[in-house]
Amino acid sequence: MNKTGVSLVSLHTANEIEDFSEDYFRKKGIYPNFELSYQMNPQDIEDASFIKGRVLSGHAPCPGIKYFPNLGSRNTAVLRESINSIKQSADTIAAFGGNILVLHAGYTIDGPVFKDFEQRKKTLEIYERQSTQLWKKTGSICKPDYWKSDEYRIHMDQTLKNLKKAAVICMDKGVLLAVENLNPRLTYLFQVPEDFSRMMEEIKNISICIDIGHLWISSLVHNFNYFKALKLLTQTGGVVTAHIHDNTSNNGKVPHYNDDHGTIGTGRVPIQESIQHLIKYSSANLIIEATSNPYENLALLESML
Fold first, then answer.
1. Which residues contact 153 (CB under 8 A, 6 or more apart)?
2. CA-wise closest residue to 182 among 221, 133, 148
3. I need a surface site. Which of 48, 91, 158, 253 has the fewest CB within 10 A?
4. Half-sphere exposure in the Cβ direction for 147 (13 Å, CA)
């Protein structure tokens, strides 16, 4: 059975979480489920302890330290901090009764990857000036064959090697490690379905988080069929959770690629068809990851079930 929930990226304080929960209960007669956010600091996590037992998953890093884990790094200090962050995140999820840790697994750089988007953009701007793989400056969109480049392959090899250790760490804590597909942006790995086919072949006890907004943008840039990719991912048998949100990306006369994390129905992502596919071919949790309108989005999602 596909459970539904809301990522706490759209609910920033304990009061907001409580108000949303009570409003949902008044209308539905049950309390909603949640995914802990990488934006939550230790105090936020402590303040949200009242939702223990209603957390399905969490997004690393949780609590949100300065950097995302980067298992693609060849820097021992970065790798050590990344593994420690994954351990701490898995402990947090387990303490809240959840059993899935969503992870942006790795990048094509050896240095740390800032969690804060503005700081991350500055790193990307430096990388853009050095890279031959930039296609569209707005959004740091990579060339369509980026995933075939040497730098991508080298760091993917490194990421898969380190994911084996990370998956075991999470399993020992009763948590599934779910690697998320990312945007077609310079430095990002896991942009194409082939990456996940390889991962599932090489690593035991690893799972997948399908982000349908990211998959939509990647299908436009890398020119693959969105629904064939969705089918390939679900056929692995490893999809345990999905992020649901919309964006306006398109390949029109003026191509536009932006990870809006918008409200369902405000963009071009084929959300209803995606939901129907996920329901039919997986038991994945369906998590709203829009950055606003959590109740509206959850109601829209549940109307599609």
1. none
2. 221
3. 253
4. 20
Domain containing 242: what range? 65-259+274-286
Domain membership of residue 203 (yes or no) is yes
Mean pLDDT by 10 residues, the chain (305 residues): 97 98 97 98 98 99 94 98 98 99 98 89 83 93 97 98 98 99 98 98 98 99 99 98 99 95 98 99 99 98 97
Q: Taking the complete model, does pTM exceed 0.85, yes or no? A: yes
Measured CA distances, 267 to 72, 208, 217, 259 (Å): 32, 24, 12, 10
Nearest to 183 by CA among 108, 282, 259, 101: 259
Domain total of the chain? 1
DSSP state of 143: P
Find the CATH number of the domain harbouring 222. Answer: 3.20.20.150
| Helix axes of 76-95 and 150-172: crossing angle, nearest 10 degrees | 40
* Residues 305/76, Cβ–Cβ less than 8 Å: no
Does residue 58 fall inside a structural domain?
A: no
CA distance 250 to 169: 39
How buried is residue 191: exposed, middle or buried, by Cβ count under 10 Å (0-12/13-18/19+)? buried
pLDDT recorded at residue 175: 99
Q: At a CB cut-off of 8 Å and minimum separation 6, what does 30 contact?
A: 24
